[in-house]
Amino acid sequence: MPNQFENHVASGETLPCVTFPGAYPIIYITLNGAILCADCASKEPKEVVKHDAYFEGPTIECDGGCGKMIESAYGNLEEVVKDED
Ligand SMILES: [Zn+2]
Q: CB 69: neighbour CB atoms within 10 A?
């Protein structure tokens, strides 16, 4: 099965920031546990050990230092539950 991520790295293209199909945001997780946006992951593809569609959770700031905020597809559902206290 072709690996889309490896194909992108091999070709030197910028990694996708959303899934296809679905258009869900993608986060890239590095060896150190940092979470990168597609642009930062594209600069250090060898650091990336995992990438995943980001379905729900708080908006997170990219750890790559670019300041980009990554929003989950469905928002922070947990926060709503906590309010029931
Ligand atoms: Zn970034």
A: 9
| Stated pTM of the model | 0.82
Which residues have C-beta within 8 Å of that of residue 57, sequence separation ≥ 6? 72, 76, 77, 78
* pLDDT tens string 17-74: 999 899 999 999 999 999 999 999 999 999 999 999 999 999 999 999 999 999 999 9
Residue 66 Cα to ligand 1 midpoint, Å, equals: 5
| 38 CA → ligand 1 middle, Å | 7
d(CA 79, ligand 1 centre) in Å: 25
Tell me, in angstroms, the distance from the centre of ligand 1 to residue 21's CA.
22
Residue in 10, 41, 13 with CA at minimum distance from that of residue 25: 41
